[in-house]
Amino acid sequence: MSYNPQIHNRRSMRLKNYDYTQNGAYFITICTKNRQCIFGDIKKGEMKLNSLGTIAYNYWQEIPQHFSHIQLDVFVIMPNHIHGILWIDNTITRCNEQRQYGNMVAGSIPCVIRSYKSAVTKKINQICNQKGASSVWQRNFYEHISRNEESLESIRNYIINNPLEWKNDHENTGDIYQQHEILLNIPF
Length: 188
Fold this sequence. Notes:
Blueprint: E1 24-31, E2 40-43, E3 46-49, H1 51-61, H2 63-66, E4 70-77, E5 81-88, H3 109-127, E6 142-146, H4 149-161, H5 176-184
Antiparallel strand pairs: 1-5, 1-6, 2-3, 4-5
Helix pairs in contact: 1-3
């Protein structure tokens, strides 16, 4: 099917004309495809990572090794999503490219998240013997730009307490990851 702007109109979730290479704190949420609980389970208010969750955790920890201007703040890997705060510090490396439609700006938050999601997907597909481009993630991600210390502290508390609140999460479907282990023969 050829491109039809009436049908194939992808609405960006990013702020129009915002420079996502600016210094600051960015609260990121990335969800798994179909919100499947593939990273582990919450037991007594604590996240217990399985092998796929450990991959997601380790690759998140490696982000500053690949993007020297990014610093990590608090984060949590949940059964079906990730919450984390990424800091851009352009005093380390200045990223001042302007985004043109359809092109990714090197070092921008969308570029960092795309690289992270790609690396995790590739590793998980390798472990699960998936051929082709089987994605682990929903398309896109959510972000909130923290504008003050009070907001940032509130977000930090939300992330830290997220496993404690899992029992109240409408996406919590119980021990669904065990069902996926049986159905997909994934090494949890």
